[in-house]
Write a structure and sequence with these properties.
It is built from 15 helices and 12 strands. By secondary structure, it is of the alpha/beta class. The strands form 3 sheets. It has an 8-stranded parallel barrel with strand order 1-2-3-4-5-6-7-8, surrounded by 4 helices. It has a two-stranded antiparallel ribbon with strand order 9-12. Strand 3, helix 3 and strand 4 form a beta-alpha-beta unit. Helix 1 packs parallel to helix 11 and helix 12 crosses helix 15. About 35% of the residues are buried.
Amino acid sequence: MKSRHISFDVGTNFDYELFDIIRENDKEHLIHNLYGKIKSDGLPGGRATSIIPDFSMNQLCDYVKECKKNKLTFNYLINPLCLGQKELDPDEGTKIRSFIHDAYDIGIRAFTVNSPSLIKYIKKQFSDVFITLGLYAYPVNIQHIEYWRSWGVDEITLDHTFNRNFELLKKVMTLYKDSDLRLRVIANNLCIKDCPFRLAHGCFASHSVTEGISMDYMLINCLYRKITTPKSILTSEWIRPEDIHLYEELASETGYTGFSVKLVDRTRPTSFIERVIKAYMSESYDGNLLDILNWPDSGNIVNIPRPNADSNHSTMRYMDRLKPECMVTYGRAMHLPHIYIDNNKLNGFIDHFIKCNNCADSLCADNILPEGEKSPISCNYCGLWAGKAITYNHEEIEQWKNIASGVLNNLENGKIYKE
């Protein structure tokens, strides 16, 4: 069998059915890792704690054993943007280090970590542990990569800006082809291109609590741009299944053997994860591209908090102080209007970025630039493709826009709370 220059990591919701799905669809054994975390570890992560599936340490132990039986590595996430100085706290720091040892004792040999001090601690304590640097460390250039490599990480999750910058990818693959450093991109995330609020949103997720979900201002704001200006969805630096071969060919051309692709999202139901696995293993998807991207409609999150029907308590944070009508409106805003992106009509979309990626020196017309505003460095490439591939109901968009505007205004001025 021909040697491949690519591997995949898949987020798990801890459904055992995923093992069967991987066996059925990954005939070349390209999926090497499952990644995830449990809610009860007391640690923040890259997703709001309240939407992480409930799983005990004993259940995690059994799941790790099942991974090994299926020749998969389990990569445990300690990957928030901010730990709130917990790792340096005399009590909390002890708990974190104790948990890491407990995880090691049940067979975990890979962690995704962003904290510099925890990376050093783990590397000094365990000679056989693999450390992945998470996205929230935001390595955006070669200097960052080299800093982290010399710090001791084994793998770096590259910032989304690398995804369509083939010239830069070629440089880093060439630079590290003779090293043990692995490089990873995320294929199906849906962050706004060069989002200026990503640090704020990462901090929001880092400081979420297990007891309840907070109203996510950054998420609604992000969705507002994407839904009211659908062309902005095309500027997000996802990678279509059909274009995966271009990245593997680049790795082959440079002689780089440490390239991997991360597939999200671990908060999704098994049907979504199965759809993503099938699409990226076959390098083909016939349908709405949003169905395999991290599109956060409330109906597509496996563990979204709901009011507890068996008690007087709710899973909404600050429940006793929130206005009931504001909670209802926030829930309505999370039911997104239907937008259809015909994946088949995006064949050839990537070519522009291979030949001449000028994104760093351009302003997206009618997106970053207000509609109708001109600039000598404006670019409407994605806008032209949006006209070919995206369809939606304008009336439905306007209705949602009015709901979301009210949510954003109430969050900004604090009117979500009772007097």
